[in-house]
Amino acid sequence: MATKKKTKGRTSKNRFNAHTEHKPTDETDKAISFINSQNLGWKADVCKLQKHHADYGSHCDKKNAQSLAQTESDLEENKKGKEFGAKGGKDFESALAKAQNWSKKYKTADEIPDNLIPE
Protein backbone atom coordinates (compact mmCIF):
# COMPACT_ATOMS: atom_id res chain seq x y z
CA MET A 1 0.00 0.00 0.00
CA ALA A 2 1.48 3.32 -1.10
CA THR A 3 1.52 6.24 1.28
CA LYS A 4 1.54 9.87 0.29
CA LYS A 5 4.66 11.79 1.17
CA LYS A 6 3.96 15.11 2.83
CA THR A 7 5.98 18.13 1.75
CA LYS A 8 6.85 20.42 4.61
CA GLY A 9 7.27 24.15 4.31
CA ARG A 10 6.55 24.37 0.57
CA THR A 11 3.88 27.04 0.56
CA SER A 12 3.98 30.02 -1.76
CA LYS A 13 4.47 32.49 1.04
CA ASN A 14 7.73 30.95 2.29
CA ARG A 15 9.45 29.79 -0.89
CA PHE A 16 12.86 31.20 -1.71
CA ASN A 17 13.35 32.45 -5.27
CA ALA A 18 17.10 32.69 -5.86
CA HIS A 19 16.64 34.71 -9.07
CA THR A 20 14.76 37.57 -7.44
CA GLU A 21 16.82 37.51 -4.24
CA HIS A 22 20.22 37.58 -6.02
CA LYS A 23 22.46 40.55 -5.21
CA PRO A 24 25.67 40.76 -7.29
CA THR A 25 28.84 40.92 -5.20
CA ASP A 26 32.59 40.52 -5.70
CA GLU A 27 32.27 37.02 -4.26
CA THR A 28 29.57 35.92 -6.75
CA ASP A 29 31.56 37.54 -9.58
CA LYS A 30 34.56 35.36 -8.69
CA ALA A 31 32.41 32.23 -8.47
CA ILE A 32 30.70 32.88 -11.82
CA SER A 33 34.02 33.69 -13.52
CA PHE A 34 35.60 30.51 -12.14
CA ILE A 35 32.66 28.33 -13.21
CA ASN A 36 32.66 29.81 -16.72
CA SER A 37 36.44 29.35 -17.08
CA GLN A 38 36.12 25.59 -16.45
CA ASN A 39 35.03 22.91 -18.91
CA LEU A 40 31.94 21.83 -16.95
CA GLY A 41 29.48 21.42 -19.82
CA TRP A 42 27.42 24.42 -18.67
CA LYS A 43 27.98 28.10 -17.99
CA ALA A 44 26.79 30.30 -15.15
CA ASP A 45 24.51 33.24 -15.99
CA VAL A 46 26.67 36.30 -16.82
CA CYS A 47 23.68 38.55 -16.12
CA LYS A 48 24.21 37.75 -12.42
CA LEU A 49 27.59 39.53 -12.52
CA GLN A 50 27.98 43.13 -11.33
CA LYS A 51 27.34 45.57 -14.18
CA HIS A 52 30.94 46.85 -14.19
CA HIS A 53 32.39 43.32 -14.60
CA ALA A 54 34.16 42.71 -17.93
CA ASP A 55 32.13 39.57 -18.64
CA TYR A 56 28.73 41.15 -17.90
CA GLY A 57 26.49 40.32 -20.86
CA SER A 58 25.50 43.08 -23.27
CA HIS A 59 22.07 41.44 -23.59
CA CYS A 60 21.34 41.66 -19.85
CA ASP A 61 19.96 45.20 -19.74
CA LYS A 62 17.62 44.96 -22.72
CA LYS A 63 14.09 46.02 -21.88
CA ASN A 64 11.36 43.41 -22.24
CA ALA A 65 13.92 40.61 -22.28
CA GLN A 66 12.28 37.24 -22.11
CA SER A 67 12.58 35.57 -18.74
CA LEU A 68 11.27 32.17 -17.88
CA ALA A 69 11.76 32.69 -14.15
CA GLN A 70 8.70 33.58 -12.11
CA THR A 71 9.46 36.98 -10.67
CA GLU A 72 6.15 37.83 -9.04
CA SER A 73 2.80 36.35 -8.18
CA ASP A 74 -0.63 37.84 -8.71
CA LEU A 75 -1.99 35.92 -5.72
CA GLU A 76 -2.29 37.76 -2.47
CA GLU A 77 -0.90 36.17 0.67
CA ASN A 78 -3.31 33.70 2.29
CA LYS A 79 -5.61 33.80 -0.74
CA LYS A 80 -6.18 30.73 -2.87
CA GLY A 81 -6.13 30.87 -6.64
CA LYS A 82 -8.64 29.11 -8.84
CA GLU A 83 -8.67 25.38 -8.45
CA PHE A 84 -7.36 23.82 -11.64
CA GLY A 85 -9.97 21.83 -13.49
CA ALA A 86 -12.77 22.28 -10.97
CA LYS A 87 -15.81 20.35 -12.13
CA GLY A 88 -18.56 22.65 -13.28
CA GLY A 89 -16.19 25.63 -13.50
CA LYS A 90 -17.19 27.89 -16.39
CA ASP A 91 -13.59 28.93 -17.15
CA PHE A 92 -12.43 25.33 -17.34
CA GLU A 93 -15.37 24.23 -19.47
CA SER A 94 -14.78 27.12 -21.87
CA ALA A 95 -11.06 26.36 -22.21
CA LEU A 96 -11.77 22.66 -22.67
CA ALA A 97 -14.35 23.33 -25.41
CA LYS A 98 -11.92 25.64 -27.25
CA ALA A 99 -9.11 23.06 -27.09
CA GLN A 100 -11.39 20.26 -28.24
CA ASN A 101 -12.64 22.41 -31.12
CA TRP A 102 -9.06 23.00 -32.27
CA SER A 103 -8.23 19.29 -32.03
CA LYS A 104 -11.21 18.51 -34.27
CA LYS A 105 -10.46 21.27 -36.78
CA TYR A 106 -6.65 20.88 -37.06
CA LYS A 107 -4.77 17.59 -37.29
CA THR A 108 -1.43 19.02 -36.09
CA ALA A 109 -0.39 22.10 -34.14
CA ASP A 110 1.43 23.40 -37.23
CA GLU A 111 -1.89 23.72 -39.06
CA ILE A 112 -3.24 26.29 -36.56
CA PRO A 113 -2.89 29.80 -38.04
CA ASP A 114 -0.51 32.04 -36.09
CA ASN A 115 -3.12 34.77 -35.69
CA LEU A 116 -5.31 32.39 -33.64
CA ILE A 117 -2.59 31.51 -31.14
CA PRO A 118 -2.58 33.83 -28.10
CA GLU A 119 0.63 35.62 -27.08
Structure, described:
There is one protein chain. The chain is mainly alpha-helical and 119 residues long. The chain has two domains: 17-63, no CATH class; 82-119. It contains three helices and no strands. It has helices at 18-21, 26-37, 90-105.
Radius of gyration: 22 Å
Please tell me the total number of domains.
2
Question: Which term fits the overall shape?
Answer: extended
Counting helices, strands and paired strands, the structural category is mainly alpha
Task: Give the helix level as a range of percent.
Answer: 25-40%
Beta percentage is under 5%
The average pLDDT is 77
Tally of helical segments: 3
Give the termini separation. Answer: 45 Å
Multimer state: single chain
- pLDDT below 50 for ≥5 consecutive residues: which ranges? none
Largest sheet: none
Spell out the helices and strands N to C: HHH
How would you briefly describe this protein structure?
The protein is an all-alpha fold.
Helix/strand layout:
Layout: H1 18-21, H2 26-37, H3 90-105
Entry keywords:
119 residues, mainly alpha, 3 helices
